[in-house]
Every structure is written in C-alpha cells, then in structure tokens.
Specification:
Blueprint: E1 2-6, E2 27-28, E3 31-32, H1 33-43, E4 48-53, H2 57-64, E5 73-78, H3 85-91, E6 101-105, E7 108-110, H4 114-124, E8 128-134, E9 143-146, E10 152-156, E11 168-176, H5 192-202, E12 207-211, E13 216-218, H6 222-233, E14 244-247, E15 250-252, E16 257-258, E17 263-264, E18 268-270, E19 275-276, E20 281-282, E21 287-288, E22 293-294, E23 299-301, E24 304-305, E25 310-311, E26 316-318, E27 321-322, E28 327-328, E29 333-334, E30 339-340, E31 345-346, E32 351-352, E33 357-358, E34 363-364, E35 369-370, E36 390-393, H7 400-412, E37 419-424, H8 428-443, E38 447-453, H9 456-466, E39 470-476, E40 483-490, H10 498-510, E41 524-526, H11 530-540, H12 544-550, E42 553-557, H13 567-573, E43 577-581, H14 592-609, E44 613-618, E45 623-627, E46 633-634, H15 636-650, E47 655-659, H16 665-672, E48 676-680, H17 684-693, E49 697-702, E50 706-708, H18 718-731, H19 744-749, E51 755-762, H20 765-777, E52 784-785, E53 790-793, E54 800-805, E55 811-818, H21 821-852
Parallel strand pairs: 1-4, 1-6, 4-5, 8-12, 15-18, 16-19, 17-20, 18-21, 19-22, 20-23, 21-24, 22-25, 23-26, 24-27, 25-28, 26-29, 27-30, 28-31, 29-32, 30-33, 31-34, 32-35, 37-38, 37-39, 38-41, 42-43, 42-44, 47-48, 47-49
Antiparallel strand pairs: 2-3, 6-11, 7-13, 8-11, 9-10, 14-15, 36-40, 39-40, 44-45, 45-46, 49-50, 51-55, 52-53, 53-54, 54-55
C-alpha cells in the first residue's frame, strides 16, 4: 500500500515558528513532525510515500532527499502556483495511486494503529474510511456522527461552539479506494471534508469511521505544539527518540557535556553537542535541541529550545519556545507561552512577558520589557472576535495601540483605496478608540467616512448609500458598562461572517499589515447628513398620515446613555407628543441595576401622563423595553410575542425570523395569521443574514437581542421599531383595520399562554463537546433539532428543552418551553442535574490524568 503524506501546510497559527519552516518540519523531540509520521508508516510496513508540498518545499526535500536514509521511498509532488486543498493535491497524483491507498496529515503527532485501521477498511468494504479520535474540545476539527454500523451519516468541518454535536473528530488520516478520486476535477482546489466526502454521501457511497484508541494531536497551534512535546516525554505517544536513555525518562545525545552540579528532573531530553554550565536547573518537561549552550545558573522550567540556541548565565525560561539559533542573554526572562523566533536576540535583563511572540531575526534591547508581539503589539489571544464583535475592558484590553492594530488588520483584508464608515456612541472612551481605529485603517490605504457620534441603526442605514466596503461601530458594551464593544459590518450593514472575522484575526495575530506609501495614506470625509439619510428612509416606510391623525403620546427613556437624540425630533414631525427622560450623559455608563431603577421610574411617568406607552432605549439605539399604559414593563419573550403578533396582524402571511431559543408562542401566533416562522442560530449575524436573504421577512429578532425590520436596513433598530409600534396602534382606527383602538395592555392579553424558562449551568470548554455528543447519542434522532445546540422535543412535539453552549463563556444555557408549567420546572431540574453530573464526571477523569502527569 502507498501513502500520501500531506506536507504542504504553512502553519500560520504556529507563527512565528513557521515563518521560515513548513509546519511538517517543526521539531518534536528534536525530530521533524514529518519524520515521526514516516516512522509510523514504516512501523506499519508502508514504505512507498508520496509527499505533497507547497510552502517552502525545498526545506523538506533537502532534509529527506529520496527517503533512502530513512528506510522509505519518497516521491514529491509540488503545488507550484497555489494550494489545491487537501483533496485537490491528492487528485493531482492520482496516476500514482491505482489501488487502495492511505492519506495522512504531515502536521499531527500520533501512534494510531494504521494496520488495524486498514484491516477495518477492508472488512467494511467501503469506499473511504476516516480515522477518528475523541478530543475534549472539537472546535478546531471536523466533527463526525456515525450510525451503529460505524457508517458516517453526518460531519461538520470546524464547528462553532453551538454546533458541537460530537467530540469524535476527523484526524486527517483516510484510507481510500483509488476510484473515488475520479469524482474530482484535476488542478482544481478541493477539500476532503468540504467537497469530496459530502459528494460521496450525496451519492450514497459508503464512508466509514474507524475510532482509533492511540494518541493523536493536531499540532495546529502553539498550545498543541507544547502539549505534543510534553506528551512524548511522558510516553503518552510512542515516538522514536534519537538519543540514548541514560536513566528513566532522561534522554541525552552524544558529545554533550553537563556540569556535575546541574540538577535535572525527568522526564527531559537534551540533544547532542550541548554544553550545560554549572548550577543549571532543568525541570521535568524540558526539551533541548542539538548544539545548544546553556550558561551557569540558568533556570529552565519546561522550555522547548531548538537547535543552535544560546542561553546566557542566570537566564530564566518558563514553558516557552526558543526557535533555531536564538540567543537569550544573561538574566533575561522569557515567560510562559512566549515564542522567540529563529535567529532573534533577547538582550540582557530583558523580559518577554507571557504569550508574546517575537518574529524571526528581531533584536530586543537590553533591559526592555516586551508586553506585545514583536516589540509593540499586545499579547496574542487565541480568539479576537466574540459573539458580537471585539470586546474587552475599556482602556485595559481595548487600548489605543490595540485599536490601531485592529484597524490595520481590518483594512489589510480590504482592497487599497476602499472606503469604511466609522461611527461611535457619545462616550469619550469610544471617541478615543474610534480615532485609533481610523489611524490604523488610514495606515493601510483605506479611506474613512467618519459618522462620528451616531446611533448604530443610522450607521447601518448609511453604509449602502455610501458604497463602503464595510463599517465599524464603537460603543460601551450594552451588558457590561466597563467594557468596549467594537462591531464590524459589511457593505450591506450586516455583521461580518465568521470567515471574514477569521481573516481579520489572522492579519491581527500575524501582524501581517499592508503599509501604504505616503501618497496612498487614507483620507477622512466627515458625513454630516447621516441623520437626514436615516430620517428620509425612515419616513418613507411609515404611514405618517395615520400617525398624525392618532396624535399619540410617548415617554422615551434614554437611561443617561445618549444626548441630543434624533428620535423625538422625528416623531414630533409626525405629530407625536414625545416626552424624553434622562437624555444626557453620565460620567459612567449606567449599570443593569441603574436601568432597572429608571425603568420603574418610567412606568410611573407613563401612568401619570396617561401616555400611549413608554419605552426605554438601550444599546446605542438597538434594544428596547416597552412599558404599557398601566406602567407595566413588556420585555423578553412577552415582547417578542407582542411584536410578532402586531406585525403579522398588519402583514398577514408574512415570515418572521427568531432565534432558536425563542418561545413557542411565536409559532402559535404565526398560525393565527397564516404566517411562517424561521428559526436561526442564537446570534445576531445569523438573524441579520436570514432577514436579508429569505424572501417575505417582515420581522426578525427577539426581545433580548432587539428587532430587525428589514425593509429599512438589516440590523437591529429600536428607533424604527418604536415608530412602527406607533403606526400599528394608529392604523387600528383606519380601514381596513378594526375601528376600536386597543392599548398595549389589551393586546398583551391576546397573546398565547406559554411557559418559557431558562437557566445557566457552568460547563468548562473541554467538556462541551462531550456533553453535546452524549445528548445526541442518547436521544432518538426524530426528537432532535440541531439548528444551534441540541433541542429535544417531547413525544407529542408540543414541549421542548434546548441545551445551548455559550459562545463566549464556559457556560451552557438551558431553555424549556411548554404549556405545562410543571413539565418545564421538572425538565429544567432534570437537565440541570444531568449537565452538572456530566461535568463533574468529566472533570474527575481530568483530575486523575493531571495527577499522573510527571509522576
């Protein structure tokens, strides 16, 4: 049998280690990952290997040559122009594959029993077998679901946190029959998981999953790289080591001198031709390459030092990586998670703080304290974007220098000369951050439409009219008054897709910024008529005469979060008497408790003035809470039901879009009015995209997120929602609608009675995948809905429980919905206990494993 070794990866998430080295050539225990894979293939009697290359192909060819020195026969296939994807590169060597063959990734560490996997494939007689493994956190891998015969029925490539249906993932190792390659066109980009396997499932071709018991780690990011090293030292994975084991767990190469006063704790590995000075401390988990010099009194706590490094006297290295040829001078400190790129120099008594990445060939001045990537950037985080954009503590996480880099990263994903709109709320912190973002955008040759202090619905409306490539809005976080939220949207005003967010993250973390020439620096144009553009669009979509005829009275509470609001002025044009409360800025943004107190005040004012209704506006014009004429608040699921009821009464047969966790009252109301309900993932982007792309949508959103009226723009808009409420109440008096005018309190009594409750349970990230898989496996397929999280229906399908992993926190949310309050209470108790017990069991197993580490 022949094997195809996919070795073309550039390893962008391993930067700066892979700036001058392809990922398969990154060393584990001082040997390239690809060499460990070749050793594995050889152990299972596979010696004819075809290596597909793309990124820096000469590095691998110069190391392995024809493979004879390593006991195999190597053939190389180089993708010269552009990468063809995992399947496309294999399709291009199809003439060398005339029988069953194996495909294996060149950037994973594993000791999976390939002989057993091949035997399984032949016994099943399938066209393809995927080698699978169970992992604690499947977010970065393709998730697989099989039936009882281990035939694959569904898989999802790199799911989001709410799409985790299993923790059984694709390892990138496949056993294939040669004829399946005929399904692909030559010289075309194609991926196994996204293209070939879905096509095979569509054609009902048998694909099986072999769940391997051995060790497997995809060395796709820096944490995984370190974990693989430590696992190899602890013999969790069977790898060949190039050096003699001098004592249990201590490997030392030839011609290495270690001063007698050196203290070494096993397991550890020290390469050949090394010199280690007096009184050096080497803790368990340390890996030292060949030709490394360690000065006296150095303190090494689990660093990984590549070949040719020089570590000075009294230097301190803590769980970091020092790449090829680095020099770390006397008394320098390189701390946990830091990476020093090849041929870099870290000066005397300098400090590289945790998680900082130094790119190759950099020089750090003596005494410098490096808090950011290279010398000036901020410490890298694994994920930049959350559920609604980029957020963090104001002027702590979200600083001016951070915002400059973020603006440059976004601008670098756009074409030079593009236009971007930038807007913000009225807080000084938002002004500071937006100016920094503008600087970053201009530095990469992007022009700015500066809307300054503008409500976000206005910014979304203006974007298409200006032909922008995208927009940014900066505001105080609506739920955390000490945080800043930076939202990005596209040319249509819709929040960016995950794929576009990933591109910005890639540019940000790699600091791969385009630098414009002086004459190409971006320009700023101040847009002074943004409110006029919004008002014109706003007015065109309302029955203004009906509103004037009704002469409603409103009380609007801005909760000290805005001044000079535009909505009361617009409503006054339509004959509304708008009483405004708290339309000024306090030094700090109001907290949730502050808003609750103001909501109570609003209720009293509405009742005293005999107003039509009251409304508290928040989230810079996106969200609202209603107060009916009796002073009672209307919010959450009741507000969702009220809005759906009123909109569908006016637009019979229309479609409404709600998140998967919305109450079932929505479906009951839609049936009354001949309408349709579409449920989406419980995130703002999914709602916006659905409202924009599905024909006939008249309303989207929920009481928690806000409401979308897509005829104006695709985003949430409390201001237009208020105006539509006024319009709908006014139209009751106009033909062809009923002539008796109902109030909000009366309309509220017409809503279906449904019990809908929610609670939250803590659930570590590492447990979420296993929990979701267990839920899917232990419930009948017919009772499940997997739009977002796992929704489980009762046998009559009139009640349900939704288990929804939180996208940004180690939490799981439970939502129960039924006409029967007792069923809701009992089901929530049952599943809360279920989740808690599952978490405790999984964490107990992790504790046992951790206790065994380095024992």
């Amino acid at each position: 049998m022949r094997a195809v070794l996919m070795a073309g990866g550039s390893g962008t998430r391993l930067r700066p280690l892979t700036c001058d080295l392809p990922k398969p050539m990154v060393p584990i225990l001082n040997r390239p990952i690809a060499q460990h894979i070749i050793d594995l293939l050889k152990r299972h009697h596979i010696t004819e290997i075809i290596a597909t290359l793309h990124y820096l192909p000469d590095v691998m060819r110069d190391y392995f040559h024809d493979g004879a020195e390593f006991g195999v026969q190597l053939t190389y296939a180089v993708e010269e122009e552009q990468p063809l994807g995992t399947a496309g590169c294999v399709r291009n060597v199809a003439e060398l594959l005339d029988e069953t063959f194996l495909v294996i990734s060149g950037d994973s560490i594993t000791d999976i029993n390939l002989t057993d996997a091949i035997r399984f494939h032949r016994e099943k007689g399938g066209k393809a077998t995927l080698v699978l493994a169970s992992v604690p956190n499947p977010l970065d891998f393709g998730v697989v679901i099989m039936d009882e015969q281990q035939r694959i029925r569904r898989f999802l490539e790199k799911p989001s946190s709410s799409e985790i249906f299993s923790d059984t993932v694709n390892t990138g190792t496949y056993i294939l029959e040669a004829d399946v390659l005929s399904l692909l066109l030559p010289n075309r980009e194609a991926d196994f998981s996204k293209d070939l396997f879905p096509l095979m499932l569509e054609k009902n071709m048998p694909i099986y999953g072999y769940v391997a018991n051995g060790y497997w780690c995809d060395v796709g990011h820096l944490d995984a790289y370190r974990d693989a090293q430590y696992a190899a030292l602890q013999r969790k994975v069977k790898l060949d080591v190039a050096y003699e084991e001098r004592s249990p767990g201590l490997w030392i190469g030839q011609n290495t001198y270690i001063d007698p006063s050196v203290r070494i704790s096993a397991p550890a590995l020290i390469g050949s031709n090394c010199r280690i000075g007096p009184r050096v401390e080497i803790e368990a988990g340390t890996v030292i390459g060949d030709n490394v010099t360690i000065g006296s009194d150095a303190d090494l706590k689990r660093p990984i030092i590549w070949n040719g490094g020089t570590i000075g006297d009294e230097a301190h290295l803590r769980a970091c990586v020092a790449a090829r040829g680095t020099r770390i001078d006397r008394r320098a400190h390189v701390l946990e998670g830091a990476i020093v790129g090849s041929l870099s120099v870290v000066g005397e008594e300098s400090v590289i703080n945790p998680d900082v990445r130094i790119w190759p060939s950099k020089r750090i001045d003596p005494g410098a304290i490096v808090n950011m990537n290279l010398i000036w950037g901020h410490a890298a985080h694994r994920n930049l974007f959350g559920q609604r954009g980029v957020s963090g503590l104001a002027n702590v996480d979200i600083t001016p220098e951070f915002a400059v880099r973020l603006g440059a990263a976004f601008g670098s994903t756009l074409k030079p000369g593009s236009y971007v709109s930038v807007s913000r709320d009225q807080r000084n912190i938002s002004r500071m951050v937006s100016r920094s973002l503008i600087s970053g955008l201009m530095s990469v040759g992007v022009h700015i439409y500066n809307l300054e202090a503008t409500a976000i619905p206005v910014a979304r409306t203006v974007a298409p009219s200006r032909g922008v490539a995208g927009g940014i809005h900066v505001r105080v976080h609506p739920e955390r008054s000490d945080h800043i939220l930076i939202e990005f949207f596209d040319s249509k005003g819709i929040n960016l897709t995950k794929s576009r967010e990933k591109k910005i993250e890639g540019a940000f973390f790699k600091e791969d910024f385009r630098r414009a020439q002086v004459q190409e620096i971006g320009n700023i144009t101040y847009v002074t008529q943004a409110n006029e553009i919004y008002c014109t669009s706003f007015e065109r979509l309302l029955h203004v005469d009906a509103i004037r005829h009704s002469s409603p009275k409103l009380v609007i509470d801005y909760a000290y979060a805005v001044s000079g609001a535009v909505l009361p002025q617009m409503l006054a044009k339509f004959g509304c008497d708008a009483v405004v409360l708290n339309a000024s800025l306090t030094p700090t943004a109001p907290t949730m408790a502050d808003r609750e107190a103001l909501l109570s005040q609003l209720g009293h004012v509405v009742e005293a003035l005999k107003a039509t209704f009251g409304v508290q506006v928040s989230a810079n014009g996106e969200q609202l809470v209603l107060v009916d004429e009796s002073g009672s608040p209307i919010r959450g699921e009741v507000l969702t039901a009220l809005m759906v009821h009123m909109i569908l009464a006016q637009h019979t047969g229309g479609t409404v879009v709600v998140p998967v966790n919305a109450a079932s009252a929505v479906e009951h109301i839609a049936r009354r009015h001949g309408g349709h309900v579409v449920r989406t993932k419980a995130n703002p982007t999914a709602l916006m995209e659905a409202c924009h792309t599905i024909p006939g949508v008249v309303l989207g959103g929920s009481g928690e997120m806000g409401f979308i009226l897509p005829q104006l723009h695709p985003g949430f808009d409390a201001m237009f929602c208020i105006a539509k409420l006024v319009e709908m109440l006014s139209l009751q008096e106009q033909p062809p609608y009923r002539h008796d005018r109902r109030t909000l309190a009366q309309i509220r009594t017409e809503l279906p009675r449904v019990c809908h409750r929610a609670l939250t349970v803590r659930c570590p990230w590492t447990v979420k995948g296993g929990l979701m898989r267990h839920l899917v496996e232990t419930h009948n397929t017919e009772s499940l809905e997997l739009i977002d999280g796992v929704k489980i229906f009762s046998p009559a399908r009139d009640s349900w429980i939704l288990i929804l992993p939180d996208a940004g926190e180690p939490l799981v949310h439970l939502y129960a919905d039924s006409h029967d309050r007792g069923w809701v209470d009992e089901t929530l108790r049952e599943y809360r206990s279920f989740v808690q017990e599952f978490v405790e069991q999984e964490l107990g197993l992790e504790d046992i494993a951790l206790a065994a580490d380095f024992a």
